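Readers outside the structure-tokenisation community will struggle with the description of the input data as it stands. Showing the layout once, in full, would remove most of the difficulty. For illustration, here is how one protein appears when written out as sequence plus structure tokens:
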Amino acid sequence: MPSARMKNRSTILMSLLFVIGRRMKEEMKEGGRKSRYSWLHFEVMRYVGSVGKPLMRDVAEHFSVTPPAATLLIEGLVGIGLLRRVVDPKDRRAVRVALTPKARQLMKRGMQDRTAAIKRLFSVLDAREEQALVEILTKIAGQES
């Protein structure tokens, strides 16, 4: 059973992660262009762009959501012209998703805005602290740097 001290640290970490998420959204608003697209929209487009043409089930797995939830997310992005459905040439029953030219243009501008917002948010850290944070978050995320 976790100690009271460990529970307190966990509570503090949860609160801090929430606050950081909120601060990131605030930085985006203060940074200039107001976007109607969420961080999740950009993450989905970034993922689709990096993978190429993933299957819907790949999107669901990557974002740890159910296939119906992934479908709703993808349908919304298809509906506003940022993603398009592509029939898999090897299996006509399989549906893949791809970025549209509009999404590629939006990604370029949007990622610049998001990068600037993150730089502003983390400007309170010196280079050593920033590197330590990247290493810690990479370790928590379970990814290689």
The chain has one domain: 35-141. The first strand starts at residue 83 and ends at 87.
